[in-house]
Amino acid sequence: MKYKEELDLADLELFTNEDIGIFREYNIRNIGQLLGATRGLINNEIFQKMIDGDIKLKLLENIVPKIVLENYRRYQDNSVRGLRTEEDNNARK
User: Fold this and answer.
1) Is 81 strand, coil or helix?
2) Is the CB of residue 8 less than 8 Å from the CB of residue 30?
3) CB crowding 25-45: b at 16 or more within 10 Å, else e
4) What is the pLDDT of residues 28-68, one digit of tens each?
5) pTM to 2 decimals?
6) C-alpha distance from residue 59 to each of 5, 54, 76, 80, 87 (Å)
7) How far apart are CA 32 and CA 66, in angstroms?
8) pLDDT computed for residue 67 by the predictor
9) Where are the alpha helices (DSSP H) in 1-93?
10) What's the CA gap between 86 and 26, in Å, rounded?
11) Do residues 35 and 5 make contact, with C-beta atoms less than 8 angstroms apart?
12) In the structure, how many helices (H) and strands (E) does the chain have?
């Protein structure tokens, strides 16, 4: 499988419909959004909500090129980021 940040997570056979529902709670639809929200898969609490999430995390780490993971992990931004539900976003308004 060729890696693309725009690749919809629902198109990956790796994730169940329940997993996709968890991602959607956090407004995460594609790999790029997931990498941004998890800082290159470092902040992996979203995977802890899934059945076999640790295995899925490792498989995803093998799909995404290491250089891309490193770029997301190295990126520094002081604004509030990470895993936020739509409810969290609405509370900030």
Assistant:
1) coil
2) yes
3) ebebbbbbbbbbbbbbbeebe
4) 999 999 999 999 999 999 999 999 999 999 999 999 999 99
5) 0.78
6) 16, 9, 25, 28, 30
7) 14
8) 93
9) 17-25, 31-37, 45-48, 53-63, 66-74, 86-91
10) 6
11) yes
12) 6, 0
